[in-house]
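Researcher: I'm preparing a figure for a lab meeting and need a structural model of a single chain. I don't have an experimental structure, so a prediction will have to do for now. The sequence is pasted below. Please return the structure as tokens so I can convert it later.
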Amino acid sequence: MPATNSFFNWFYYGLGNLGGWFLFFLVALAAVVWLFYDSASRRLPALGWRLGISLAAFLILPAALYRFTVNNVTDVVSSPLGPFGEPIFYLGVLGGILPLVLAIGYYVTYQGLVVCPQGHVYEASKGKCPHPSHQQHLPTPPPPVRPVTKPRKQEPVAEETELPARPLKKHLNAWLITTDGRRNYQLYVEETKIGRSPSSDIVLEGDKSVSRESARIMEQNGRFRLYPVNPGVYPRLNSNVVRQPTLLEPDDEIQFGEDTTLRFVTSR
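Model: Understood. Here is the structure written out token by token.
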């Protein structure tokens, strides 16, 4: 089509014979630099976004090679890349557009979120990380001094033994984030229990269709697997019913009950 041919010629030989591909290259470069800078400054777990936008930007490199081996239309026959001008053209267009699309998607996903030095994702509007590990514990005041009185004979009382405090579980650099990005739950080492029960590690109390003990996520050597634990109500992974242990990948979406969907995110 004439319009397509005109854009093809402009893409390679427009802008004073420099080629319109250079504008696409600048847009892709700006998107890549901004995403890397923003995710690093907020310490966000955006490894997948960085890798995706980098690979998308590389699609424009064949267009640059083609432009400097084919200076005009008459050189197409003699150039080794001449017969591939059309597919390289489409790759170059995608290489300029896809990084911008990915940058917008990243912005929407992580808008208003930051990461504290301990790796917890939270909303920047809260001012500080609300995770319980950041709460300052005030020292226990000393008991009041009572006047010394003459001891009275008392019956022996069995000494009460204080039960040891339940140890805190160690967190991992992995999270379950709501689809709107407003809430996040950090996973624990080895095992994370998920359900509506208050004894769960991740309590999903807003959705009555979630069972009291819905699922568990087990971690081993940096790999995460989703285990269903309620035979009557199975979770869904990317819309597929999970009936047996299933390996999780970054950006997988897990549905618990009817209305609760969480996205799996990891910084590894």
